[in-house]
Design a protein that fits this description.
Blueprint lengths: L4 E3 L6 E2 L6 H11 L1 H15 L3 H7 L1 H7 L14 H28 L1 H20 L4 H29 L5 H26 L7 H7 L2 H12 L5 H6 L3 H12 L5 H15 L4 H4 L6 H15 L3 H14 L4 H25 L5 H27 L9 H19 L2 H12 L5 H30 L2 H20 L12 H5 L15 H12 L5 E3 L2
Antiparallel strand pairs: 1-2, 1-3
Helix pairs in contact: 1-7, 1-8, 2-7, 2-8, 2-10, 2-16, 3-4, 5-6, 5-7, 5-21, 6-7, 6-9, 6-10, 7-8, 7-20, 7-21, 8-9, 8-17, 8-20, 15-20, 15-21, 16-17, 17-19, 18-19, 18-22, 20-21
Keywords: Membrane, Sugar transport, Symport, Transmembrane, Transmembrane helix, Transport
GO cellular component, one term: membrane
Subcellular location: Membrane
């Protein structure tokens, strides 16, 4: 590798010259707003489906059941497959759209995938706001889903490619921060629109999805392409110029050489979807499937989708249930800042492990508190003090998720793939995420009715499994340049067996050799 890229003493990987520039910060900030559309939808759906005016118009059977005597089973009040189809149809559409987004992202660049996602989401928001029947609602949500699929496929990759390696965690987590802001904004809007007399507040809630869609649609038009994408599409000089601009230095030869080497290697891969199943990509493929799966079975979307419905079911009033959702939304936003400031210092593994332990404890406590009051019969009422305790532990649970599996579930998959399979790998991550978001959204109300308080123990059990998985099988990725990530897998006690020496490009081999000779001390790689 030409020049003198430093392999630091901590073994985190190379340290390329350059620092955070205002240009990088602003571009990453604009790109991260792609998370607003996903977050807004997560927050808005649960609030709208708890509004009487919405239920009476589109789901009258559910509305009549809700108005029955309050002594009916608290676990089964909202069990309607039609209602869950409305909520979860978006995620099935996002799953399918992410595969098409992979091609757009690779062939045309990351920004145009974001633009396409924003435009489609905008049309879906207009349809939902003007909906006259359930069919219109679901078609609108399918369009929203296509928008989410495109945005979630392209934004995390864009952020990871633009950011300097040592600050990649902080900048990439901006996507998750925007998701949490979208959720909070939706909760606040629902709280306000629920008070509108005349029964049309739900239209305002659904139509206002056009605001975050407009932000990412317009913003993406002004975004530059990433150097990785420019090289991948044959614009080498533009890539060199862009790399100088985003790193704030002309000393970019080493990073440019690594990007170029990765691009040359990617050109040998004609069918990324076929290649990704090869043995040498087994570590990345495993993470692309398991990390988004685990992120969903933490049970977080049970809280975020249905927070107003859940709190209402637990005996809170309609206003109180929406306010409780606002509280959890605030906790989600502020706790995400913890990961922004610690992911590049403490590393990904420590946050995963600490957050996992915190979530397990809270799920057991919340499940037990609900069991004591409602038992298996579903009969019972909560005092204000007792209800406050339930909300408090749910908030502690949300905080644990917000600085671990929330942001890192998007960050880690976006930073581990080599260029030749990066778009395909991110599509798998998004599609698995959306598939299990769909499954859980579709099954949650039925599960709550059948498992009752045991639902919290069910998700707690999954958090135990995923925490053990991280402890043994996820290596630390902080500070490692994306194109050198193969060294992390090669050095892992389990994954190293899947990667042959010839699977590592020349520059990485030399770095690995120098690292071994120096016994982990700083070494300078040059050819």
């Amino acid at each position: 590798m030409a020049g003198g890229a430093i392999v630091n003493a901590r073994g985190d990987g190379k340290e390329y010259p350059g620092n955070m520039t205002l240009f990088v910060f602003l571009t990453c900030l604009v790109a991260a707003t792609g998370g607003l559309i996903f977050g807004y939808d997560i927050g808005i759906s649960g609030g709208v489906t708890s509004m009487d005016s919405f239920l009476s118009k589109f789901f009258p059977a559910v509305f009549r059941k809700e108005k029955q005597d309050k002594s009916t089973n608290q676990y089964c009040k909202f069990d309607s497959q039609l209602l869950t189809t409305f909520t979860s149809s978006l995620y099935l559409a996002a799953l399918i759209a992410s595969f098409f987004a992979s091609t757009v992202t690779r062939v045309f660049g990351r920004k145009w995938s974001m633009f396409g996602g924003g435009v489609t989401f905008l049309i879906g928001a207009a349809l939902n706001g003007a909906a006259k029947n359930v069919a219109m609602l679901i078609v609108g949500r399918i369009l929203l889903g296509i928008g989410v699929g495109f945005a979630n496929q392209s934004v995390p990759v864009y952020l990871s490619e633009m950011a300097p390696a040592k600050l990649r965690g902080m900048l990439n987590i901006g996507f998750q921060l925007m998701i949490t802001i979208g959720i909070l904004a939706a909760n606040l809007i629902n709280y306000g629109t629920a008070k509108i007399k005349g029964g049309w507040g739900w239209r305002v809630s659904l139509a206002l999805a056009a605001v975050p869609a407009g932000i990412i649609t317009l913003g993406s038009l002004f975004l530059p392409d990433t150097p990785n994408s420019l090289i991948e599409r044959g614009h080498d000089e533009k890539a060199r110029s862009m790399l100088c601009k985003i790193r704030g230095t002309d000393d970019i030869l080493d990073e440019y050489a690594d990007l170029k080497a990765a691009s040359e290697e990617s050109k040998t891969v004609r069918h990324p979807w076929r290649n990704i199943v090869q043995l040498r990509y087994r570590p990345q493929l495993t993470m692309a499937i398991l990390i988004p799966f685990f992120q969903q079975v933490t049970g977080i979307n049970v809280i975020m989708f249905y927070a107003p419905v859940l709190f209402k079911t637990l005996g809170f009033g309609s206003d109180a249930s929406l306010m409780s959702a606002v509280i959890t939304g605030l906790v989600n936003v502020f706790a995400t800042f913890v990961s922004i400031f610690t992911a590049d210092k403490l590393g990904r593994r420590k946050l995963f492990l600490q957050g996992g332990v915190q979530m397990i404890a809270c799920q057991v406590i919340v499940g037990t508190l609900i069991a004591i009051k409602f038992g298996t019969s579903g009969e019972g009422h909560l005092s204000h003090t007792y209800a406050g305790a339930v909300v408090a532990f749910i908030c502690i649970y949300v905080a644990g998720f917000a600085w671990s599996w929330g942001p890192l579930g998007w960050l880690v998959p976006s930073e581990i793939f080599p260029l030749e399979i990066r778009s395909a790998g991110q599509s798998i991550t998004v599609s698995v995420n959306m598939l299990f978001t769909f499954v859980i959204a579709q099954a949650f109300l039925a599960l709550l009715c059948r498992l009752k308080f045991g639902l919290f123990y069910f998700f707690g059990g999954w958090v135990v499994i995923m925490t053990i998985f991280v402890a043994f099988f996820l290596p630390e990725t902080k500070g490692v340049p994306i194109e050198e990530m193969v060294l992390v897998w090669k050095g892992h006690w389990f994954w190293g067996r899947f990667i042959a020496d010839e699977d590592i490009h020349v520059g990485s081999k030399l770095e690995m050799t120098n690292g071994k000779k120096g016994g982990g001390a700083a070494a300078v790689a040059s050819v």
